Amino acid sequence: MKLKLALSLSALFFASSLFAAPQVGQAAPAFTLTDSKGQSHSLADFAGKTVVLEWTNHECPFVVKHYSGNMQSLQKQFGSDDVVWLTVISSAPGKQGHITGAKADELTSSRNAMPDAVLFDETGVTGKAYDAKTTPHMYVIDKKGVLQYMGGIDSIPSAKVDDIAKATPYFSNALTAVLAGNPANPAVTKPYGCSIKY
């Protein structure tokens, strides 16, 4: 009985460690995902660059709020050879927000968005590895592959466009700090938005 219990606890620990929450200051979870054009991308491909991960669901009103111009502005502001912006869709097939590659490209074009790639995480493995909970949910990974920020895009958890200008821009501040070689402060904030449809 004790052996069975020990084995059960060991299995439980192993399973939980597979999806242990990522930690700021530690290596960001590795991933390999396919983009809207069928190309494969791994985190390791971007060594030496700062990587932004943006979880999204185009039907979520909080995403609609930030794609009224704010997200595009951030993509343009931080677009450079040193920054790779990856938009991630973890909606499972049949769930809200799940789209084809062609639809993703259409949304990128129609919204004048500028991510370097839109990645599909249909199994949810990458989203769960990052403990991504909402759309949007933002992450900053530095040039060494270390997670430096995870959390909300800003400080006002509403779907009102007018609140963007009033909010503290947590993500923008964090990315600015990391690009300057400084730690994000705060490095972890509470994300808000729609739950990811795993």
From TrEMBL:
Segments forming domain Thioredoxin: 22-173
UniProt signal peptide: 1-20
CDD domains: PRX_like1 (cd02969)
Keyword check for Metal-binding: no
GO molecular function: antioxidant activity; oxidoreductase activity
Gene3D superfamilies: Glutaredoxin (3.40.30.10)
Keyword terms of this UniProt record: Signal
Pfam families for this protein: AhpC-TSA
PANTHER family: OS07G0260300 PROTEIN, THIOREDOXIN-DEPENDENT PEROXIREDOXIN
Protein's name according to its UniProt entry: Thioredoxin family protein
Lineage summary: Bacteria, Pseudomonadati, Pseudomonadota, Gammaproteobacteria, Chromatiales
